[in-house]
Amino acid sequence: MSMRKLWHYGQDVILPTVAFALMLLAWELGVRAFDVPVYLLPAPSVIYAETMKEIRPVMFHTWATLQTVLAGFLLSVAVSIPLGFVLASSRYASNAIYPLLVLTQAIPKVALAPILVIALGANELPRIAVTFLVAFFPLVISVATGLMATPPELIELGRSYRAGRLQEFFKIRIPFAIPFIFSGLKSAITLSVVGAVVGEFVTSDRGLGNLVQSATAFFKVPLAFGAVTLLALMGIVLFQLVTAIERIFFPWSLRQQRDSA
Questions:
Q1: How far is 214 from 220, CA to CA, in rounded Å?
Q2: Least confident window among 52-56, 163-167, 193-197, 233-237
Q3: pLDDT of 11 above 80
Q4: Which residues lie below 8 Å from residue 132, measured CB to CB, with a gap of 6+?
Q5: Tens of pLDDT along 87-130?
Q6: CA-based nearest residue to 161, from 150, 172, 177
Q7: Measured between alpha carbons, how far is 247 from 13 in angstroms, rounded to an integer?
Q8: Which of 26, 87, 217, 219 is geometrically suited to a Cys-Cys bond with 144, CB 3.0 to 4.6 A?
Q9: What Å distances lie between residue 143 and 10, 11, 85, 178, 259, CA to CA?
């Protein structure tokens, strides 16, 4: 590994890790130095110990939340990418559909969740629906923006070679839109975690959102902090997974983003 690659690796991995470790150390020392009560702010060591005591139910709730997150995210991908193509291909469709998309985004999902429970029943469907509604908007906007941001000279070049509409989309517009699409995917996967927790707060007998509620109800604050930490880790891991897919299959996309930054 060259010195330049080692330096970039240090910037991307080592420096954030060191900063996070220093934050945990400051948190631990601050709580102990000022003798902060556990029910107000537990130390990281206490959070870890209490979470490990309940590791089996914690893993059960983590798996339940992960299932909801992935289901809502995949549904948002299945709807958003074709819808983004429609918005980018027709000005009339864009003018008709775009205000409706903004309307769905303007509605608070916490207020909508109880209505979904009545409509869909007290099962997994309302939680998946909330996750989908939270995640799909930034993705569909990113897809449409990327497709419409293709330079006109590339479009004219393709037409000069008699490229059809489908060839124009698949060989010109989509490759140019890849960085935009993955930017939307990264936003959508992290927002899916938020949407899943919102759904679990409203109706659920399992999941990390339900664990936070039950733990705080019984004043098990360290366990609640542990559940919140797992939610944060889940979001980080899923975000990095999407980034890894982009790096493996579309490495030029990351270079293009760095060059435009």
A1: 8
A2: 163-167
A3: no
A4: 72, 75, 76, 79, 195
A5: 988 889 889 998 888 888 888 888 888 898 888 887 889 999 99
A6: 172
A7: 15
A8: 87
A9: 32, 30, 7, 8, 20
